[in-house]
Amino acid sequence: MPKLYAHFLLPLVLLVGAPVTVPAPRDPASADALPSTRAASAAEPDALRLKLMHELQIAQDPGPPAEIALSITASSARASEWLAAPLATDRLLAAILIFLLLNIAALVLSSIAMRFQRESVQRRRERFRARWEPLLYGRMSGDDDPLPCLARSERMMFLTLWLQLQGYVRDEAAQALVRAGRELDLREYVLRLLNDRSDWKRVVAMRAAASLRLEEACAGLLAKIAQDRPKSSLAAARALLQINPELGFAGLQRALSHLEWSPVAMVGIVKAGGSRAVQMLAQLVRSAPPGGAKQVVRLIEMIEDDSALPALRERLLSNQDDEETAAILHALGRLGGAKDRETALGFLAHASWLVRMQSASALGSLGAEPDCDRLLPLLRDGNWWVRYRSGQSLLRIKGPAAIAALRDGESDPYAREMLDRVLSEER
């Protein structure tokens, strides 16, 4: 405890209780005595320090006087650091506060600037539409008034408005809009925009090139189909089909080879190509390697064009891939007719549960009353999905009342449970 007193209390005494010498007014008469007075004043702190050291040595005998002197010096230094620490902390906190305030002010100012910019762009677009919409509507109505010059900064706004209006009109009105676009000589701008860094601007340029039938864009569009940019590549395939159908079919075939693309994204493109595109799909089904026609088969089914049915039937007879067989059976169930009924019946005993399930499902739309005897054994199949699709097909063919009676007389628990399930879903 005495040592702790020496380390903490003594420096405080030395800092607070040390005498402060205030110089008195200088007296010329006592100038000779000034040096001795200064010497006496300077000796007083040393005398006080030696006296305290002597008292501590008597109280606890801590050791040699040198150790006490070192302890007092270290304690004095720590006390000085402790008194200076709050000043450094305050400066640091003040700097952090100023930094935060400046950042908040910068964020607020940038937000205000961006808002003003958006409002300015919106007002500019509104003024543009108010000037150009009546002119384009007039062209669609048959007016032949010359169009005003289009400023360079307005070309993208014009393309956006022009393509938007084309999506709402057909036939003569659409042709009038195309003539208006050609009159404004947008060819060079559209071709340059095809290589813009923005995906959105490239897609706008592709649609504009298709509307203007720019043959010069075909090579670039064909190259973009093979790029790893699905949205841009699909837009390029659609545009190419509209400009040059032959090149478009080649590009579409290349696009269909990308299995990661969903058939949903391809439906609009194939429809844009018309009946020739469906014929091309049928040819792809016939020439695809084993197991490689699943994507094309799903696409044909989604288009709902039965002109490709002969190719599907040919593929099914020689097919050895279970997944592809199941996909063709599913397509036949949606697009096929009475002549496909026997085909579906022939796959009810297939080794793959996937094929059995799709053949049973197809009979729900292709089957007749005599086919129920072929479906009833599938209610006891080891696969749940086969039992479920068989129960659904039986319900479509026989009706709820007959299925209820069949359920009541069924002894197999799996078959009875599935018939009860499809009946509950019907209600």
Produce the secondary structure layout:
Elements: H1 2-16, H2 34-60, H3 65-140, H4 155-166, H5 171-183, H6 187-193, H7 199-212, H8 218-225, H9 230-243, H10 245-256, H11 263-273, H12 275-287, H13 294-303, H14 309-317, H15 322-335, H16 341-345, H17 353-366, H18 372-375, H19 384-398, H20 400-408, H21 413-426
Terminal residue distance: 91 Å
What is the number of helices? 21
Strand content: under 5%
Mean pLDDT: 78
Number of strands: 0
Task: Give an account of the 3D structure.
With 427 residues, the protein is mainly alpha-helical. Among the domains are: 101 residues; 76 residues, Leucine-rich Repeat Variant (Alpha Horseshoe), CATH 1.25.10. The protein is 74% helix and 0% strand. The protein is built from 21 helices and no strands. α11 packs across α12, α11 crosses α13 and α19 packs across α21. The two termini are 91 Å apart.
A few lines on this structure:
With 427 residues, this protein is an all-alpha fold.
